[in-house]
């Protein structure tokens, strides 16, 4: 494998090791050697470590049940990751990657493309691909999930590819964005193994990794 992926993990209320075990073979299949870490300061060295892709599966926060959880990126860490993407890096944010943490962090929010606000208790809903074609949703049909329905504040520069509908409103669930010379993709679904193993979800993440790895 001649490509390297940094898998950022950690925070609260999620099975980070379970995601690592599920997602590592997918990245290996795409030609990436995977380096998992719970240390957020790792992003400070991206430019010197020849990392090709950063995958962020975090849920930043502070809670007494998770005394070792990362509360969020520091301003320096968020800026380092953002600058790396702007210079041509590739970032895939999954699910809780938009949970910024208790402290405001506009750089992290702008990079991912949204800031998590809340979610109701998990329930069954369907995520629909929009009609406009894009490599991230190639071969992906409407995806029924039992998951957390993320309600978020969204950046204005998103290219939205999948939505879910609740009480008459459509909410972005999958999007991409360009940042400088780099690319960002985000998938809101993915709280647990109930979602990770769905064939349509695997196809979606496989597509996202492929799109992120493609040359402009």
Descriptive keywords:
alpha/beta; globular; single chain; nine-stranded mixed β-sheet; 5 helices; 216 residues
Q: Helicity level, as a percent range?
A: 10-25%
Largest sheet: 9 strands, mixed
Number of helices: 5
Topology pattern, helix = H, strand = E: EHEEHEHEEEEEEEHH
> How many angstroms separate the termini?
21 Å
Q: Which parts are unreliable, with pLDDT below 50 for 5 consecutive residues or more? A: none
The best one-word shape is globular
Beta-strand content estimate: 25-35%
SS-based class: alpha/beta
Strand order in the largest sheet = 2-1-3-4-11-10-9-6-7
Radius of gyration: 16 Å
- The mean pLDDT is 96
Quick one: how many beta strands? 11
Written description of the protein model:
24% of the residues lie in helices and 34% in strands. The chain is α/β, with parallel strands linked by helices and 216 residues long. The radius of gyration is 16 Å and the shape is globular. The two termini are 21 Å apart.
Structure in a nutshell:
The longest helix is centred in the C-terminal third of the chain and has 15 residues, at 199-213. By secondary structure, this protein is of the alpha/beta class.
